[in-house]
Amino acid sequence: MIRAKDTTWLLLICLLIGQFYVRTHGTPIDETKDDYQDDDYYSDNEEDPLEDETPPVVDTPAARPYFEESDLRIEAKPGDDVVLNCDVRNFMINNAVMWYKNTTMIVNGNTAVVPRFEAMKNNSIFLQNVTPADSENYYCVILPQDVRQRTTLRVGARLSILCDDRDITDRSQTFRQGDHHKLECRTYLPGEPTIKWSFNGIRIESSPSDEEKGVIVLDNIDDVNAGVYQCLADDGSHDPPHGMVTIDVQYSPKVSTHRHHVNTEEGGFAEVYCNYRANPIARSFFVKEGKTIQLSEKYSLRDSVHNGHNRTTLIIRDVEESDLGEYLCHVENAIGYNEVKVHVSYKPETPQFEDMKLEGTKVTMHWLVRSLQPLSEAMLDYKLSGSYTWSTVSVLETHRHNQTGGIWKITHQLDLPRRGMWHARVKTKNPYGWSNFSPDHDFTIQADGEGSYEPSDADLPPDQIVQAGIGLGGRGTASALAQMPLGGVILAALLLRQIRQL
Ligand SMILES: *[C@@H]1O[C@H](CO)[C@@H](O)[C@H](O)[C@H]1NC(C)=O
Ligand SMILES: *[C@@H]1O[C@H](CO)[C@@H](O)[C@H](O)[C@H]1NC(C)=O
Ligand SMILES: *[C@@H]1O[C@H](CO)[C@@H](O)[C@H](O)[C@H]1NC(C)=O
Ligand SMILES: *[C@@H]1O[C@H](CO)[C@@H](O)[C@H](O)[C@H]1NC(C)=O
Questions:
Q1: 230 plus 289 within the same structural domain
Q2: Residues 411 and 481 in one domain
Q3: What phi and psi values does residue 482 have, to the nearest 5 degrees?
Q4: How confident is the model at residue 470 (pLDDT cuts 50, 70, 90)?
Q5: Overall domain count for the chain
Q6: Residue 273, domain extent
Q7: How far is ligand 3, taken at its centre, from the CA of residue 310, in Å?
Q8: What is the per-residue pLDDT for 410?
Q9: Which pLDDT score, from 0 to 100, does residue 133 have?
């Protein structure tokens, strides 16, 4: 600061300007003209507030004050102290300085009229501890000639979220499936704040391998990346800066079914399920033997919503031989399409693992199977992880039940002598043939005989289930003993029970 010498400086400036004035008198300077013409701040504005105050002084062109640059730009961080200069040339004793923040006067002569601004003796203004709200166009205006210089001050936010180097703080953004984008949380804070990202409310732990601090790289973007990303710069304060962005992802439909094989019977009906999610909105239709299925007496459609996905169900009435075979569900939107195949047949559906119980080395497992026709046989395969061949338990040559159709439950107990990871799978047979094998069910027999297993995420048949068991055994035990490759004692019993519908 130069307050102590205020008067001295003022005198000195006046003297210097006086000399300059004398020396340049009568020498027109092109820049001054340009400056004057460039100055369009009020040129197309009839209501120039300064015009009225301007006394009609006789202007000597050579003596006009001017700026070497009419436009300045200052980039600052929040909390910075900023000096806005007004480095005018040809400043005369009769000239006065006014400062404007956009259209608001902030300094009149050498007196600040708006708090926080400080007028300096060299016509500059000083602004302490700037905030993003100070970002504006500032004008230093030299009267009476109305020569002005614009200074654009930009104060960055304390924290910004950039997507591919573009500021998207507190906005939403749409990505496309397969895109690659980079989200960066940038702060302008003293010290080293800890950048904390979260996604849909769950903290994203940054791995030490992250090349750049505060950067999230999204590769091969998919629907799982859609959601709210929040960034917080933990600077230890009570009010740490934070920001968020909402990411929307457009993707081609995700199509699935929970029943790849649908069992039905002659004269009955069949339901073909097509589950999908899509953004933007998708349309679905079914195809059989290359032809799109049209609604008719035979075919109807039902739309429903099931925890997070949409389902279209094709209902086939009065089933006959020609209705069996492969149905294709085709779902498409603006991004693309996907399909799922469903087989309609008279054979049993693929068995689904239901649950299991481990007691020491004894394992009891349950599967569920749909077949309107009676099951005549079931086969269970099991093996220790790493062995090449399956051991097979086969029961029920032909066993007829008096039933009206529905879901069957297969229960099987094994005594496994070896610790380790085991795999088990099941298939069943009805008069029309064998089902596919169920997916392998994996479980572990621990060292102390205690077991654990990963719960299967296979969908259970949705219909109501009532147990009505018919116990069977004997043969299963025999074949298991005969085929057990490890020579241990195996107690195996396969229990096949029909579950009647309510
Ligand atoms: C005016 O004075 C301030 C404070 O001494 C200084 O930072 C600034 O650079 C000066 N401006 C000019 C144009 O000399
Ligand atoms: C400047 O002021 C005018 C009139 O008050 C206003 O319309 C404009 O938005 C302001 N410019 C900025 C950058 O704030
Ligand atoms: C389900 O479909 C409706 C309209 O048919 C749509 O508004 C909604 O977004 C869809 N839901 C999903 C998860 O695709
Ligand atoms: C099944 O049982 C019902 C009544 O319980 C009987 O009327 C029917 O004849 C039985 N069907 C067969 C195939 O045994």
A1: no
A2: yes
A3: -65, -30
A4: very low
A5: 4
A6: 257-345
A7: 6
A8: 84
A9: 87
Query: Which numbered ligand comes closest to the C-alpha of 304?
Result: 3
155, 182, 213 - which closes a domain: 155
**CA separation for the pair 320, 316 (Å, rounded):** 10
Exposure string for 203-222, b = 16+ CB within 10 A, e = fewer? eeebeeeeeeebbbebeebe
Q: Which atom of ligand 1 is nearest to the CA of 87?
A: 13
CA–CA dist 289, 16 (Å, integer): 97
Q: For residue 337, what is the domain's CATH number?
A: 2.60.40.10
| 110 and 60 within one domain | yes
Whether residue 239 sits in one domain with residue 134: no
Ligand 3 atom index nearest CA of 310: 1
Distance 454 CA to ligand 1 centre (A): 72
Q: What is the pLDDT of residue 60?
A: 57
pTM for the full predicted model: 0.59
Q: Which ligand is nearest to the CA of 374?
A: 4
How far is the C-alpha of 83 from the C-alpha of 143, rounded, in Å? 21
The ligand 3 atom nearest the CA atom of 277: 14
CA of 59 to the centre of ligand 4 (A): 118
Ligand 2 binding residues, C-beta < 6 A: 102-103, 136-137
On whether both 379 and 391 belong to a single domain, the answer is yes
Q: Are residues 321 and 209 in the same domain?
A: no
Cα-to-centroid distance, 172 and ligand 2 (Å): 26
pLDDT in tens, 89-139: 999 888 999 999 999 999 998 889 999 999 999 999 999 999 888 999 999
Complete edge-to-edge strand list for the sheet that includes strand 159-163 = 166-167, 159-163, 181-187, 215-218
Last residue of a domain, one of 307, 329, 345: 345
